[in-house]
Structures are given as structure tokens and as C-alpha cells.
Task: inverse folding
């Protein structure tokens, strides 16, 4: 009796009631029935984004909204500060370069958060920077960046907007869009929002809307002016991904019922228990600034991460993630993100111990499980 | 006991077994489990596109793939011939203009197909045209274009590719991608493919791939080189819309079981019965070159189309479509597209008669139904 447990940092498990909502007969999007769901979803998105700004939805993966966050606010030859401390920070740089935007990189060693002071110094040194791109949780490393401090710095510049990739962090790590003065927040559906992949989101501050008017990058599908114009009529410019929006409506109900503050506490609890278990097993965390969405761990000497991932998935049905890019085989990532509770962590640690045993890693059996359980009992 | 009947040209009804496939627990896309579905889906797409070319899938609405069909093959200042005989032909023009491509319009009166001779003459007159954009079924008017003849013309030009929007026509009207030498076919998920909106498709001929190498339009999310590189490893560059791809796998099974030739016969039968019913009711078809996906009809004098649409939907639960753009209120469109049979047409005509009665249009009751039924009994 093999059961499947999805513990990767996206896609994450979808609650059964949300899955079932997608099995409802499809209906047309230009109807009062759909418009009511659309309205509710837009209110719910503002709640989880902690903002009064517009939060716009695209039928695309998260990368689509990342592209939208470049092409709508910048023009070719503009300067953009890009924090590159992992695969997704690098992706912002690649998108900017595709559109002829000058990238001023802030390269951060993978596993480390960006020092906000570096951003401050770079903005002083380089005049006329139009945007700063960074990540809340850098999914590839599990690092949490100090967005609040970065917001304080960037908001003092009238001509510079702050764009944050919160694709995996939203709903796991606190992100006060308005209080922290974040102009653009990008997210995706298959993480903390607990629905399948296929929707992406973008919040846009009034300051960012001013950039839209000046931007000369070509665009069409991801054009924010076309999108906003349709939204003002409670519509979308292109056919929306109806079944995913219906699912989002259901998941936002669950989110609002639990409340954002409880959701953050739950993610912290799951993350802390996971980290305790990892420590108890004699393993080393990949970062000292961990997100509560995902725990990244160095592979112990002599054991290939790819074998671990495969064994856990194929033998035990537990899907965790390996390292990306240069880190392939050298680390693994366990997510505790979205529709998860204590027993998901227990299952992940149990499977991890069993797989490590089989791969020849030496540790006292059950020490990881005991540490996680103890952490759960304490708080 | 109100039941809902979706008879608009997209989104179209989704078979229950396909809907239920989306309620299955989500799984990760970088697993053998997903890769097997992905492979099967790619084979099935080639079957319905009638091609050996690559058929690539995007997480986006159809407009996203339309944009992909512009930005990957052309460069700013290139010349493109754009057939504009409805809203979607016009959209091709808008996308080209957004990217600085010179549009040579072939404006066709809405309701009429394009005369292939016009394309021939324009290609003779204008040297160096890089692409011809047209539609199979122009959804906004219900017009079917003669793609086979257009293919014969465009394929004689080495430097010109033919791009066809088959978003609503695919699976309803015959389209022999390879035999007719169509370089790029664009489609969407929520029409003949019988799944919800959120996926878009693009087939790419070897001749079109040569254009990709020369194209200088900026792009990222819709970049075909990045997509192709991932496909070569049985992967996608960005997270796919997993649940929609699973649904597509299910619907393609249904499609292959019925067979493409039977599907075309069924659509023709439904379309012909609908047109007979419309004629019997004394109404005028909007076009003499109708697609088998959708029947467009002039509103009779003195009756506002918007009232008809609303009454049919709100009182009878039957969703048909009105006119778009300048045709708002002046016509209506009944789709017989995708998951539909004789009794869907019967329901649509019955509801249409009842609504027209109520709105004061004069006709002999049941003449539409009788004509449809007679047509069904004949073939």
C-alpha cells in the first residue's frame, strides 16, 4: 500500500475540497456566476498579499509574472539591481537581459541572504536605478531575505521600485507588502496558495503604476494596462484559467478561516521541528537564514543526493527536492509549505531516516523523529 | 430544476471523466509519473494537429500562444501580412504592432472568408514578407477560411511562413497541418480539446524553426528555444499547469477513441442541423462560409441580442454567445464544439425558440426543432 506524499517546494499538496472544486462542470467566464468568484478571489488575494494594491492574476506559471514584473516597469537600457543568490534571483537577471535592460548584479553566495547594506551602497553608487529585484524565499536555497530592511532603503528613492519574488514564500513567511513598501510582489498558485500550478500573481503599488506609464518594453499577453482596463470592468483581457480560479476561491476560504497569523505560526512550527530533526540526525542546514517554506540540507559526505531523492520517492512515495544547478546531488530540500501539518513532517523525517539507513549514513535510529516530536510537544 | 448548458464557442463543456481527473491528488512534474503523461500528451497533440512537427504546450490562454507565434519568428521592422476579418485576426495585428512589426493588413468584411487570391497578390506586390497570419475559424464571426489554398500560396515563398490561429477550429474543422504546409498552428485548451482554459499550443515546422534562429524580438516566458531545449529532456522550462495537462491526457484518449475523422463528421452533422433549424426559424446566417465549430446568426430586426443572451442564460440555463466588438447586440453565436451531440443542439434550439417567443419574434413554434430533428434523422 504505497501512498504518495508531496514534500517538494512546489507543486504542494492540494486540499481535497479544493481538488473537488475543479471537478465541477465548467461555466463561462463572462457571467455573473464567474464574476462573483472573481471579485471574491481578488479580495482574498489582497488579504494574503497584505496589501490594498491591485493584485492581478495571469494564466501562466510564476515565471510569466516575473516577466510581467520586468516588461511593464522598465525600458531597454534602464538599469536594474538584481540580487542573485540562487536560481530564481538569476532568472530575474536573465529576463532583464532578454529585454535589453542593464543588470547591475549583486551576487550573493548561495545559501546566504543578501546584506541590505549592499543594496544601499549600490543605489548610492549607481544613480538612476529603476528597479531592485530580489526574492523573499529563494526556493533553490531555502534562504529568507530581509525584505523589510530592503523596503526601507528602496522606498527612499522616488524613481526606484522594489520587486519581490514571493512565489514560494507567500503564505509561509511574513510579507507586509504595504507596510514594508514593496511595489511589486510576484507569486504563483502551486505553493502557499495550495492549488495546482497554472496561475501567477502580481501586486502593483501606485508608484509602480507610474513606471508602467513610462515603460517602453514591448509586451502584450502580460501587459498590465490591458489587464487593468479589463479588471475595471470586472473582467480579464484574455480567457482566464477558470477551473484554477475556482480552486483558488476555495483555497482562499480555507486560508481566511485559519487566518494569516495562524498560518505563519504553523509554518514556523513545522519548519522549526524539521530543522531540529535535521540537527539531531547530525546533518547540516544549508543556510543560517532559513525560510519557513522549505528546509535545505547539505548531503552528508559520500552519499549522492540523487540516490536519496529517488529512493524516497520510488520506495517510500515521499517526494522531496534535490539541489538545483550547481547544487545537484549536493543538497536536498524538504518543504513544509501550504497544506501541511505536524504529521507531514513526521512522515518526511521517518522516510528520510529509512532512506539514509539504506544508503549507509550512520546515525542513531529515530533521533530525527524524536527531535521533531519533542519540538511539536513544546509549542 | 435549472440545469446549465454551455453552448458558447469556448469555454466548452468538459466530459465528466476529464473533470474528475483534475480532482486527483497533485503530483510533482519532475517524476517518471508525470513524464509518462507528458510524452503521451505530446503524441496525442500531434494526432489532432495532423502533424509530425513539434507541438509545444504553454501554461497560458490562447492569446499567449498567439504572442509566441509572433515574437519567436519575426523581428522589429519585419513585414507581416495579417488577415483581419474579425476580432482574432485583429489581435494578431495588435500583437505584431506591439513588437514593432510592420503590419500589411488584408481587411476582410466581417462575415466573409478571405479570398486567397488577395494573399497571393499581396505577396507578389510586397517583397520580403516574413509571415502571413490568418485564422481557421474566426471565432468572432464563425467564418471558416480556406487554409488549404492559402497554404499552397504561402509555401511557394521560402522566406514566408504561414501562421494559423486554430484556437476554436481545431478538432471541429479539418486542418491538415503537414499536408497543407502550415508552418505554425496556434490552439487553446478550452474548445475542441474539451478541457478547461489555461493551456495553449503551438506547432512549429522545420521552416518556422529557421525563422526562430533569425528572430530578434525580445521574449522569455514564450521563448521557443528555451521550450524546445527542455522538451528534448522530456521537461518544460517552467512549471507546467499539471492538472490541466492531466485533463488533456484524458480528453486526448477520448478523442483518439472516437477518431479524428468521426469527430469531423459529428461536428459537421451538428453544424448542419443547427443551420437548418436557424433557416427554418426564418433567421439569417451571418456567413456563407461557416465553420463547423459555431453558427453565427443575425438578430432579427427589433430584437436586441443582449436580451436574448441574458434570457437564455438566466431563465433557461443555456449559455450562448453574443456578438463581439461592433457586432454586440446584432448577432448571436451557438457553438456545437467539443463535447457535444445531437441533443445539445436540440436543447439549444428549444431554448432559442422559447426565448424568441418571449421576446416577441414571430415564427411557427417548433419549426426549428423539427428542422434539426429531420436533419439528424437524414444522416
Result:
Amino acid at each position: 500500500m504505497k501512498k504518495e506524499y508531496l514534500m517538494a517546494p512546489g507543486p504542494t499538496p492540494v486540499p481535497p475540497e479544493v481538488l473537488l472544486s475543479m471537478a465541477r462542470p465548467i461555466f463561462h467566464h463572462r457571467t455573473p456566476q464567474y464574476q462573483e468568484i472573481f471579485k471574491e478571489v481578488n479580495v482574498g488575494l489582497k488579504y494574503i498579499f497584505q496589501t490594498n494594491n491591485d493584485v492581478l492574476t495571469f494564466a501562466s506559471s510564476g515565471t510569466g509574472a516575473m516577466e510581467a514584473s520586468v516588461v511593464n516597469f522598465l525600458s531597454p537600457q534602464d538599469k536594474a539591481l538584481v540580487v542573485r543568490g540562487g536560481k530564481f534571483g538569476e532568472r530575474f537577471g536573465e529576463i532583464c537581459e532578454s529585454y535589453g535592460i542593464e543588470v547591475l548584479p549583486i551576487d550573493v553566495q548561495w545559501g546566504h541572504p543578501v546584506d541590505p547594506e549592499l543594496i544601499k551602497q549600490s543605489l548610492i553608487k549607481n544613480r538612476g536605478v529603476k528597479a531592485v529585484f530580489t526574492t523573499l524565499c529563494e526556493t533553490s536555497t531555502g534562504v529568507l531575505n530581509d525584505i523589510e530592511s530592503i523596503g526601507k532603503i528602496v522606498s527612499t528613492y522616488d524613481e526606484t521600485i522594489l520587486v519581490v519574488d514571493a512565489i514560494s514564500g507567500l503564505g509561509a513567511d511574513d510579507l507586509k507588502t504595504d507596510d514594508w513598501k514593496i511595489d511589486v510582489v510576484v507569486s504563483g498558485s502551486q505553493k502557499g496558495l495550495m492549488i495546482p500550478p497554472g496561475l501567477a500573481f502580481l501586486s502593483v503599488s501606485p508608484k509602480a503604476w507610474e513606471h508602467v506609464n513610462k515603460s517602453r518594453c514591448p509586451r502584450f499577453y502580460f501587459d498590465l494596462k490591458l489587464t487593468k482596463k479589463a479588471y475595471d470592468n470586472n473582467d480579464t483581457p484574455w480567457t482566464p484559467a477558470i477551473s484554477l480560479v475556482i480552486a483558488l476561491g476555495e483555497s482562499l476560504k480555507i486560508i481566511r478561516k485559519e487566518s494569516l497569523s495562524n498560518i505563519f505560526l504553523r509554518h514556523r512550527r513545522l519548519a522549526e521541528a524539521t530543522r531540529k530533526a535535521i540537527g539531531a540526525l547530525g546533518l547540516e542546514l544549508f543556510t543560517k537564514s532559513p525560510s519557513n517554506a522549505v528546509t535545505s540540507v547539505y548531503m552528508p559526505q559520500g552519499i549522492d543526493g540523487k540516490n536519496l531523492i529517488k529512493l524516497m520517492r520510488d520506495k517510500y512515495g515521499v517526494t522531496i527536492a534535490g539541489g538545483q544547478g550547481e547544487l545537484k546531488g549536493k543538497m536536498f530540500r524538504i518543504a513544509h509549505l501550504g497544506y501541511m501539518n505536524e504529521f507531514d513532517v513526521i512522515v518526511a523525517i521517518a522516510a528520510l531516516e529509512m532512506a539514509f539507513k539504506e544508503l549507509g549514513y550512520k546515525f542513531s535510529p529515530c533521533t530525527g523523529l524524536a527531535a521533531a516530536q519533542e519540538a511539536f510537544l513544546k509549542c
In short: Chain B touches chain A through 54 residues (CB under 8 Å).
